[in-house]
Design goal:
This protein is mostly helical and 92 residues long. The protein has 4 helices and no strands. The protein has helices spanning 14-26, 31-45, 59-72, 83-89.
């Protein structure tokens, strides 16, 4: 960066700004930093570049993913169950 900066003024819904401020804060940045990252990547890639998200699988989901991967790789035998057993396991 050559040190020349400009002020950018944008208008957005108040609630959306508050939600964005909260998200960016959780990600360790402010609105200016987030928008600068977005614009730099957009220019670099010539497109809308990426998604920043807090969507992380919980421990139970990660365990299920690992189990499926192990089944696919033959590390553990595939399990089959009846629809009734599945419903019972799901708490129905």
């Amino acid at each position: 960066m050559n040190g020349d900066t400009v002020n950018l003024s944008i208008r957005m819904d108040k609630s959306l700004k508050e939600q964005a401020d909260s998200l960016f804060s959780e990600l360790g940045m402010n609105m200016t930093t987030a928008l600068t990252i977005f614009v730099r990547q957009s220019v670099r890639q010539g497109k809308i570049p990426f998604e920043i998200t807090l969507n992380k699988p919980n421990a139970e989901t990660l365990a299920a993913i690992r189990e499926i991967e192990e089944m696919r790789n033959g590390l553990i035998p595939k399990q089959s169950m009846s629809v009734a057993d599945f419903a019972r396991e799901m708490g129905e």
